[in-house]
């Protein structure tokens, strides 16, 4: 995706906000808002935002899991399953 096609000045957004919000929701793309020629903000539809937040949460969980493995706080799945089977048969 070419970002340059989605860079708009804040004055454009002020004038066409309602239309652009509908368009963003349909296209599911980002819009970069400039002020005095510099990009100051990124506007995106809520579905894309929520998807990005979900992805970040998953990446955080994966990173925490990797930290646990590196710290030796992990056990092989085979060992865990065997222990669960033993507990289930004892009950």
| Low-pLDDT regions | none
Characterize the overall form: elongated
Mean pLDDT: 93
Strand order of the largest sheet: 1-2-3
The biggest beta sheet, please?
3 strands, mixed
Number of strands: 3
User: Share of helix among residues?
Assistant: 55-70%
Kindly give the count of domains.
2
Description:
- The chain is of the alpha+beta class and 91 residues long.
- It has 2 domains: 3-44, 3-Layer(aba) Sandwich (YefM-like fold); 48-90, no CATH class.
- 63% of the residues lie in helices and 15% in strands.
- The chain is built from 3 helices and 3 strands, in the order βαββαα.
- The protein has helices spanning 10-27, 46-70, 77-90, and strands at 7-9, 31-35, 38-43.
- The protein has a 3-stranded mixed β-sheet, covered by helices on one side.
- Helix 1 links the parallel strand 1 (7-9) and strand 2.
- The longest helix is centred in the middle third of the chain and has 25 residues, at 46-70.
- The radius of gyration is 24 Å and the shape is elongated.
- It starts with 6 loop residues before the first strand and ends with a helix.
Outline the secondary-structure elements:
Elements lengths: L6 E3 H18 L3 E5 L2 E6 L2 H25 L6 H14 L1
Parallel strand pairs: 1-2
Antiparallel strand pairs: 2-3
